[in-house]
Specification:
Distance between the termini: 20 Å
Number of helices: 11
Structural class: alpha/beta
Radius of gyration: 20 Å
Order of helices and strands: EEEHHEEEEEEEHHEHEHEHEHEHEHEHE
Largest sheet: 7 strands, mixed
Shape: globular
Strand content: 15-25%
């Protein structure tokens, strides 16, 4: 699935060639992420990325996709014998050019690091991990998404008496719920406009209280559950939507000492009244992860069966259906996660 000059189409590109210390994979499973849409819809952010990690070049083909599992079919010069041909591997979505001497590229967001919406994929051996034989490739392909929630929940270091509020029950919101539930944290309050996502958060990922924001503020639900359980602490909010104006609304609704972790992406920018935030005494964290410990820890949790991300998958598709699936992600109008099998095998 090639992105060129703002248009997506299935096409032929030269087979990627593994460089020194790189593995060539046959893509088995890959997941669609909202950041794929953001990359397409906001090319200005990658036309001149000062970090060099991403690049939107209208004159060069880019293959999107950065959440993947593949089968090793080849090795570049200097590889070890750690990953045999035929083994399944996954990796954090970064490509180290010349072993890192040439810089880092985000897989699926740079012409020099073609992504997983294609039949073949190159990854750095040092970033790769073997996938155990009995775990689903589709589950492992969701590692990157669920590592995001793990990062923010780990960063929050929740204390006894605090109440978690998760705003949004899409893929990232569910990942936050799973990370909270995996630590035995309760109660977990989840707010989302869609009933099916609220039910998914409660029935499959461990939320305790689910709220339709059109009917009740999540902060009202927080105050109710805090009173019922006699909890003394403030709310710890995990914002997982990224809608303009939402952070300001959360700040205005928050009590003193509320901590806010912003997992949503603001690709069109936003504003915040600092005076209000100061008066409310809130702490806000933007970005910063996931770190390798979050990513590989999430992979281990999936591989061991402690975390099952598959209930978030609503559909498995082939390459031809990727544009329509990306449009669903753009409108937040599909299942939390759609999985792609670039080499077929659609059941």
């Amino acid at each position: 699935m090639v992105l060129r000059d703002g248009r997506l189409q299935v096409g032929e590109t030269p087979d990627p060639k593994p460089g020194p210390g790189e593995l060539l994979l046959r893509t088995l499973s890959t997941a669609i992420c909202a950041s794929d849409v953001h990359f397409m819809d906001h090319p200005e952010l990658a036309v001149d990325d000062p970090t060099g990690r991403s690049l939107y070049d209208t004159n060069r083909d880019i293959v999107l996709g950065h959440e993947f599992v593949g089968e090793v079919i080849g090795h570049g010069p200097g590889c070890t014998d750690q990953f045999a041909v035929g083994s399944r591997v996954t990796a954090m979505p970064i490509r180290l050019l010349d072993g890192g001497a040439g810089g880092v590229r985000i897989i699926g967001q740079h012409p020099d690091a073609q992504g997983s919406f294609g039949e073949l994929l190159v990854v750095s051996e040092v970033a790769a991990k073997t996938v155990p034989g009995d775990v689903s490739s589709d589950a492992v392909a969701l590692t990157d998404a669920f590592a995001v929630g793990e990062f923010y929940v780990r960063s929050a270091q929740m204390r006894e008496g605090e109440v978690a509020i998760v705003i949004g029950a899409g893929a990232i919101g569910l990942s936050a719920v799973a990370a909270l539930a995996g630590r035995g944290i309760e109660p977990i309050v989840v707010a989302d406009y869609k009933s099916d996502r609220r039910e998914l958060a409660r029935d499959c990922f461990g939320a305790h209280v689910v709220v339709d924001p059109t009917e009740k503020s999540p902060f009202d639900a927080f105050r109710e559950v805090r009173a019922e359980r006699g909890l003394p602490g403030p709310a710890v909010v995990f914002e997982c939507v990224g809608a303009a104006g939402l952070i300001q609304s959360i700040v205005e609704s928050a009590e003193m000492a509320t901590r806010i972790y912003c997992a949503g992406g603001w690709y069109t920018g936003d504003t915040l009244d600092i005076t209000t935030a100061t008066r409310q005494g809130v702490t806000i964290q933007f970005g910063g992860g996931p770190h390798p410990q979050d990513w590989y820890g999430t992979l281990e949790a999936i591989a061991s069966g402690r975390l099952d991300p598959l209930p978030s998958v609503g559909k498995i598709i082939g390459l031809d259906e990727v544009p329509a699936a990306l449009d669903l992600a753009r409108r937040s109008d599909g299942p939390p996660r759609i999985v792609v099998h670039p080499n077929g095998d659609i059941q």
